[in-house]
């Protein structure tokens, strides 16, 4: 895409987000976006054939931010749960500026009659999980890959759902949930989570036994 077209592509999305923040994603009208940018509706259609394509572009930005994030030199030496935590946290942080709208976008997809949007949503989940695995250098294959993908998908969706409604500072509660869930993943390389617990020791008597 030529640079000028790429800039317009981004401007349309940015303007749509700004206008929706004033009202809601449901109330956002594409003709209002066109008027704000002084372009035609056909200009918008060329970049976004339907309103939901703006949603896909918003999640594409999160994918790009996560994949483009700088990693420490020792990133590949970290245990799996730490690598995945960093990757997924980068993805969530990219969405954080418009968390309320992100929640509304997903609610719009889940409305009755939007089956086609829900099907695209499932494809989006699968695609994002694949990029999580690539970014975290998760190289399992065969049956183990299938199990890993299913486990990671369930953890990601559970953490994402909590994050959407998390009012704690910087979404720290849902991020803590994410880390705990990843640590409990069998074989994740977290020694503190895989070592058996030490047997409980009986408490010493408070007073020495009598004669």
Shape, per Cα inertia axes:
elongated
Q: Which CATH class of the largest domain?
A: Mainly Alpha
Average residue pLDDT = 87
Number of domains: 2
Number of strands: 0
Report, as a whole number of angstroms, the end-to-end distance: 91 Å
- The CATH architecture of the largest domain can be named as Orthogonal Bundle
Helix and strand sequence: HHHHHHHHHH
CATH fold descriptor of the largest domain: Tetracycline Repressor, domain 2
CATH homology-level superfamily of the largest domain: Tetracycline Repressor, domain 2
How large a portion of the residues is in β-strands, by DSSP E? under 5%
Global Rg: 23 Å
Sheet/helix structural class? mainly alpha
Enumerate the spans where pLDDT stays under 50 for 5 or more consecutive residues: 192-211
Q: Number of helical runs? A: 10
The largest β sheet comes out as: none
Helix content: 55-70%
Keywords:
211 residues, mainly alpha, Arc Repressor Mutant, subunit A, Tetracycline Repressor, domain 2, 2 domains, 10 helices, disordered C terminus
Descriptive overview:
The protein has 211 residues and is mainly alpha-helical. It has helices at 3-22, 30-37, 41-47, 52-68, 80-95, 99-109, 115-135, 142-164, 172-183, 191-194. The protein folds into two domains: 1-49, Orthogonal Bundle (Arc Repressor Mutant, subunit A); 51-187, Orthogonal Bundle (Tetracycline Repressor, domain 2). 66% of the residues lie in helices and 0% in strands. Helix 4 (52-68) crosses helix 5 (80-95) and helix 8 packs antiparallel against helix 9 (172-183).
């Amino acid at each position: 895409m030529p640079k000028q077209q790429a800039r317009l592509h981004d401007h349309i999305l940015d303007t749509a987000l700004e206008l929706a923040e004033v009202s809601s994603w449901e109330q956002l009208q594409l003709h209002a976006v066109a008027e704000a940018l002084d372009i035609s509706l056909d200009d918008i259609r060329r970049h976004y054939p339907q309103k939901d394509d703006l949603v896909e572009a918003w999640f594409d930005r999160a994918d790009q931010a996560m994949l483009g994030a700088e990693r420490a030199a020792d990133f590949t030496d970290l245990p799996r749960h730490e690598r995945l935590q960093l990757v997924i946290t980068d993805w969530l942080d990219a969405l954080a500026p418009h968390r309320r709208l992100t929640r509304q976008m997903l609610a719009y997809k889940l409305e009755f009659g939007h089956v086609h949007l829900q099907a695209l949503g499932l494809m989006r989940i699968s695609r994002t999980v694949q990029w999580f695995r690539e970014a975290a250098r998760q190289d399992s294959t065969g049956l183990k890959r299938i199990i890993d993908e299913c486990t990671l998908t369930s953890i990601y969706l559970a953490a994402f759902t909590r994050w959407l409604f998390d009012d704690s500072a910087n979404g720290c509660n849902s991020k803590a949930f994410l880390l705990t869930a990843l640590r409990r993943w069998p074989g994740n390389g977290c020694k503190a989570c895989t070592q058996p617990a030490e047997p409980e020791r009986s408490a010493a008597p408070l007073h020495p036994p009598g004669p």
